[in-house]
Specification:
Length: 240
């Protein structure tokens, strides 16, 4: 039975891989998207001891693990390619950091700089959420004379885009992240008239999908074979 359990755990891991890969491919053209990366951990750890030259509980010589399970899904923060749009409300961060966004009093972070204007001329995301300055205030702009330099300073004002370093990131949805701010970013350039593309490599994801499918098929056959052997064993032992 242990073989069936281990093979089934492997099937679940392959299924988790396929889910992540499918989500990555679905967001191939999503601005600022960061691909998912699965982390796995060993479980059912057992300690091996040698009793040859030891007394009592013996001497530890290593560990064995019976299975591997999905631990967490984390975003891969590699830089996506920059795409020139020439749109004055389009921004890309080249380097570190995230734009800070406010929605109903809650703060989020994103690399998607595809912004627009609210009816009151505030800089907002496509979802209508406020883009914030370094004082965490919404940014009111003059759409006829709106220029942002490489450091995020808005021309003709004392306002600067709030570009932050963030850790312990978790995907929230709508290409937003939650996390813990660790200060202003300093290793970056703001590129007005550009957008950051997804960091998904379609060819690499397709190769990973093929590999995950093959693993799933092999493990599925292992479960089927193990089940048949167990049934045969039960049939044989029932005759004694």
């Amino acid at each position: 039975m242990r073989g069936i359990y281990n093979a089934t755990a492997g099937m679940l891991n392959s299924f988790a891989e396929l889910n992540s890969i499918s989500n990555n491919l679905a967001n191939l053209n999503t601005v600022g998207y960061k691909k998912d990366f699965n982390l796995f951990k060993s479980v059912y750890e057992k300690e091996i001891r040698s009793y040859q030259n030891a007394q009592g509980k013996g001497e530890p010589i290593g560990n064995i693990y019976s299975s591997v399970v999905l631990d967490e899904v984390i975003p891969n923060l590699e830089q996506g390619s920059l795409i020139e749009t020439n749109g004055k409300l389009d921004f890309a961060i080249e380097g570190d950091g995230f734009f800070k966004i406010e929605r109903n009093g809650n703060y989020f972070y994103t690399r998607n700089g595809e912004f627009s204007l609210s009816p009151e001329n505030y800089l907002v995301t496509k979802s209508g959420d406020y883009v914030l300055d370094e004082e965490n205030n919404p940014i009111l702009i003059n759409p006829d004379n709106f220029f942002v330099d490489e450091e995020g300073n808005i021309s003709g004002t004392n306002i600067r885009l709030n570009i932050l370093n963030v850790e312990n990131l978790n995907k929230y949805g709508e290409n937003y992240f939650t996390g813990e701010e660790i200060g202003q970013a300093d290793n970056f350039y703001v590129r007005q008239g550009f957008l950051e593309g997804s960091n998904v490599d379609a060819l690499n994801e397709m190769i990973k999908m093929i590999e995950a499918n093959r693993k799933f098929d092999i493990l599925q056959k292992a479960v089927s074979t193990g089940d048949s052997l167990n049934a045969k064993l039960i049939e044989i032992t029932s005759n004694f």
